[in-house]
Amino acid sequence: MFHVLIDTSVWLKLAEDHRLTPLLQVVRGLVALKKMRLIVPRLVIDEFNRNSERVAKAASRSFTSQVNEVRKAINKVGGDQKTTKLVLKHLDELNHKLPKLGMPADDTFSTIEKLFNEAEVIEASESVMARAAGRQLDRKAPCHQNKNSIADAVILETFLDASKVKVRGDRFAFVTDNVHDFSSATDHRLPHPDIAASFSKIRTMYFNNLAACLRKIDPSFVSEVEWLDLQQQPRSISELLQAHTLLDDQVRYNRYQYMLWQIKTHKLKVVTRAQWDELIAKDRRNHEKYIIDSILPVAAKNIAKVEKRLGPDNVGPWSDFEWGMINGKLSAIRWMLGDDWDNLDT
Going residue by residue through the chain (346 aa), what tens digit of pLDDT does each one get? Predict the structure, then answer.
């Protein structure tokens, strides 16, 4: 029997992204066949319920945006006016009825809630809370970042407690996509060095990918999981733009922090507009060494808005590997949207 703890962030993605529905059905099937038992901390249910409304709205927007994209495409392509008018009418009716009919995410939420209800919900013990607090105080993963990750520590310690039960044939798996808090910075498939000793390749396993975990539990389900991997639908333009906004904000925020560091370390000097014009007239390369004083308050105001949009979990600091991933993702999305490669202007 595999005892599996699926982190809150994974459950939320299963609820939000309709393309992952086949993966959720595999989980349901393995549980029904008693090949897999879910470890569900009370905290996971609480976090899921707290975010469910936001996720449901995001799923609704995604589905509605796809309908709108189809509508725009039909208008752009044109064709027989009578047929076009009829199709657009049906799309308008669908858009109008969607909130009343319920979204595809509704069924997914019901499936997840049923899995929660059928599982044994584990309350956090005093010893679990104490060890989690210790991780926070010692700044050990998953609490090594500059943020309060006590909830992540409680979930991890609940799993480690459950995995101590010695029953012949039992195996355990911890599944999370929160790689910044739980994974190694150099290889996200591996646990962070602070928690690596608690995991093994045989009995107590670590996964940053739910599909990989399900393959390990029962290879006979591999065809369904591979079908999901191979048949993923292209992402909508709205999804690309949403990801672009996030990554662009992260790059913008990081560059602003780097500018402040340059000023603090005297690598960048603040000058007046008149001084700037004089310096640039002498050598255009001086723009790398000086900045106009009037720019700073405007930049600070704009970055405050960016910081508010990003939230405390999305502003870094990042390792060189993570920073490379952010820039690479932004470059790839911009290429998809029509820019040349390596265009990272912000």
Answer: 999 999 999 999 999 887 788 889 889 999 999 999 999 999 999 999 999 888 877 666 655 666 666 666 666 655 566 666 666 666 666 565 555 444 556 688 889 999 999 998 999 999 999 999 999 999 999 998 877 789 999 999 999 999 998 788 899 999 999 999 999 999 999 999 999 999 999 999 999 999 899 989 987 765 655 555 545 556 667 778 888 889 989 999 999 988 999 999 999 899 899 988 888 888 888 788 888 999 899 999 989 998 888 888 788 888 888 888 998 998 888 888 778 776 666 5
CA-CA-CA-CA torsion sign (222, 209, 109, 236) = negative
The DSSP symbol for 26 reads: H
> Residue 156: exposed, middle, or buried by beta-carbon count in 10 A (0-12, 13-18, 19+)?
buried
* Residue 317, preceding peptide bond in cis (omega within 30° of 0): yes
Q: How many CB atoms lie within 10 A of CB 276?
A: 19
Q: How far is CA 217 from the centre of its chain?
A: 25
- The span from the CA of 120 to the CA of 298, in Å, is 53
Radius of gyration, CA atoms only, the chain: 25
Q: What share of the chain is helix, strand, coil (3-state, %, to 5)?
A: 65, 10, 25
Give the count of beta carbons closer than 10 Å to the beta carbon of residue 229. 10
Q: Which residues, including other chains, have CB under 8 Å from residue 71's CB and lie 6 or more apart?
A: 88, 91, 92
> Any long-range contacts for 199-206 (C-beta under 8 Å, 24+ apart)?
199/174, 202/171, 203/163, 203/170, 203/171, 203/172, 204/163, 204/171, 204/172, 204/173, 204/174, 205/171, 205/172, 205/173, 205/174, 206/173, 206/174, 206/182
Residue 142 CA to residue 8 CA, distance in Å, equals 14
DSSP conformation class of 183 = B
CB contact at 8 A, 181 and 141:
yes
Provide the whole-model pTM: 0.61
Q: Name the residue with tokens 């996971």.
A: 44
Q: CA–CA separation, 318 vs 146, rounded Å?
A: 11
Other beta carbons less than 10 A from residue 60's beta carbon: 18
